[in-house]
Amino acid sequence: MAWFKVQKNQKVARLGVELPVTFIEEGDSVVAYTPALDLSTCGKNRKDAERMFSEIVKIFFNDLVENNTVDEVLSGLGWTKDNARASWIPPRISQESIGVQVPTLV
Question: For residue 99, is it within any domain?
Answer without folding.
Answer: no
